[in-house]
Amino acid sequence: MAELRQNTWSLDEWYDQHVAGNVEYNFSGKFWYCGYSWEGQWGSNQPVNYRRSSPVLLGGPSEWKEIFGGSTSNAVFGIKTDNSGWCWGSNKFGNLGIHQPNNGDRSSPVQLPGEWKYFTSIGGPDGEGGGVMAIKTDGSAWAWGTGKDGRLGLNSPNDQRFSSPNQIGTDTTWGNVSFGAGGSSYGTKTDGTMWVWGKNDYGSLGMNSSDNDQRFSSPTQLPGTNWAFGRHSCTGGEKMGAAVKQDGTLWTWGLSDGGHGGRNNPTTISSPSQVGTDTNWKRVTALNGLNPNLARFCSGMKTDGTLWVWGNSAAGALGNNEGPGNNRSSPLQVPGTWKTDGYNVVSVGTDNGSIMSCVKADGTLWGWGGNYDGQLGTNEAAYPSRMYSSPTQCGTATHWMKATQACGYNKPAGIFVSE
Predict the structure, then answer these.
(1) Is beta strand 346-349 parallel, antiparallel or unpaired with respect to 328-334?
(2) Which of 17, 56, 173, 385 could form a disulfide with 372 if both were Cys (CB 3.0 to 4.6 A apart)?
(3) CA gap 419, 415 in Å, rounded
(4) pLDDT tens track for 36-52
(5) Which letter, b or e, does each residue of 337-371 get, where b requires 16 or more Cβ atoms within 10 Å of its Cβ?
């Protein structure tokens, strides 16, 4: 093999050599933002009530590898290439984990102690509280915010608040943790087991019980040891749950009246039921939003890079060029080939509709749904707002890595990472 040059690589050369196995490339990235600056969720020290309709680069080193947006809380988290965790945005209910019990919003990144792998954040309208779960690089799971209905899994009294991270149990084998919009929570471990906790509305915990008053404040195991445990292997939506098994099959349970169960059947089911017969599912993401009538929507990715959506079509969120009222109760393919790795399948619900941002395999950035404050980055004025019912490209750049949306109280912002 020819001798490799040192310290003179361009970005594309580094990437090519990484693919060839010659060098290690850490995929450090630049952080971009657009949409509405409501509670500091841009992380750029910008004032509130400020809009950008196309992505703007946040200054500083190019060292971000993951950005995680809050579904309704405007709390945002990021991980750098050294695995350090950072937070900014809304601190209602202690959601930032910086040991401040309430408010104290931060408009620029603040570091959290420890080394982090994933963050999952959720919020709710004023009075309902919010929470955050995360996994550290050692496989331990952590939670903070409001423990309403036991959804933090900390075995604490209902509605107890935590303003700094607390470990969920003592295990260090967690692969994924996720919140549901109805107060339920889900997690998978590296041994193939799946665990649930929180509120069991409409059988959303999958425990073969339809008792809506049933609650668990610490993780309880579901049957089986064949559950996938990677990022987005399990998810929760509006009073429903979904997960992928190691054999590539997709399973859902709970409420399905908006078609978001994906089983072509509106029947509520209190234990996991398979969606179709395909065995190449890789990940699944459910919508968590402010308006329950709109928060019934799921997306899934297959190993071949195809993207699939089902459920409520509000604001064109299904990306199938159909407007509201054309709900789909079984998976529908979104045209194109998409990245199967990284955090790039995003769905967020607002009072006005639903949003998706996603990165294609060629590195281009696309979005669809309601573009009410410029959060899709399409360089359009915020008003009059526009809905996109099919994927629309954001600019012409081809080095996008990740896409997410931070949404709180109907003030969404797009947050992206590029190489």
Answers:
(1) unpaired
(2) 385
(3) 14
(4) 777 777 777 776 677 78
(5) ebbbebbbbbbbbbebbbbbbbbbeeebbbbbbbb
